[in-house]
Amino acid sequence: MKIKEFFKSNSFKCIIVLLSIALVCGSILAICNDLFYVSDAEMFARSMSKIYEGDATKLNDLIQTEGDQKTYKTYNCEAIVLDAQLSPDGKTLLVQSKGSKCGYQGGSLVLWVSMKIENDTLSGINKIIVDSYDSSQTLIGSISAEYLAEYCSDKYLSVVTGGGHFSNVKMDKNNNKAETEMVASGATYTSAAVNSAINGAMDYARDYVGGTL
Amino acid sequence: MKNKYGKITLDGLIFNNPTFVLVLGTCPTLAMTSNASDAFGMGISVLVVLTLSNIIISALRRIIPNAVRIPAFIVIIATLVTLLKLFLNKFIPDLYASMGTFLPLIVVNCMILGRAEAYASKNGVLASAVDGIANGIGFTVSLVAMGIIREFIGSGSIFGLQIMDFGISFFAMPMGAFMVYGICIALFVYILESIQRAMRIKKTKRLHGELLNGEELNKEEA
Questions:
Q1: Where exactly are the structural domains of chain B?
Q2: Is the pTM of this model over 0.90?
Q3: Are residues A10 and A60 in the same domain?
Q4: Cα dihedral B132, B135, B139, B140 sign
């Protein structure tokens, strides 16, 4: 095939049409990506408004650099405390905790955990919300607001105040602290990551009130 | 002309309903119907992508060579889904979070590619838009119906509004989705066939009546 024939052929037309479509689509996406970009500040404001159900008050930043972040391990899971904020009255501690290595396909998710602090002790969990998760957590829909509200109920208050942890499987019956089973139907692995993130947040709060940070 | 669009609409909504008759888009149907709100969100998302993709593909049908039509359709559909994803993340983050991985999976929803291939690439822009809207509404209504059933039986609520304190969690789980889907298909096909049978009988009676009248007239004339 001569070069001149190639430029007149259907193959050339196919290439040009596909390239044109890809170019136009790519340009539109590039523009819209900038237009609809969600900044970290906006993500933080969204999470705060979910916790406080309105505008959040100005909070004291406890973790300012990556060096301030802490890693906690319970029941073969890992939790990294990414961010921590304290309310001006010192009675509410907000912890952004990432439960990792035990989610579905070894994936992870990030939670914001709001906790009550009274008389220098952790006295309960106010609210938990899902901040973000990786794409492998396909059954994240099972982790509903109602399910997360159970962690804040009086039923599990003794676990929170008594230095206990949550697990997705029942642990050694002789160890009372490991007896608390919390699992969402159909999302066992994601529940493990949720438990890990909450355990990490509680441990951070205990360290904070205990002055060991 | 009016009759043509009416037929397209009825086909998309009832006679060729993508969910209950053609059994297309099964993945989001099973995954996103554990509650009615998520089902509605998924339905509307598919409706928007389907309508826009039908319009664009129909407008470009004379330009896109036959040999590369499928890759071209996929690029267009993927772009629309990515735009929808960016839009939802910015303006409706709750819906974006609840749809999870099933939002990008709209790209490979066989209903959207199927309508592009079977209808939009062969018909005009207006007819393709009507087809997209009708199929999208048919899909949305089916998903919402299943979502209402599963949410009501599974957790005793409808659109998050608690109706009763009793719930069978089996129906909120994947195996419950298969069961509800099967029952819905059976019921829909049964009702559809009953209506079609009734219409056929009515039509036959009318033709029979006309025939008898014609014979009587012929006898009188003779």
A1: 2-190
A2: no
A3: no
A4: positive
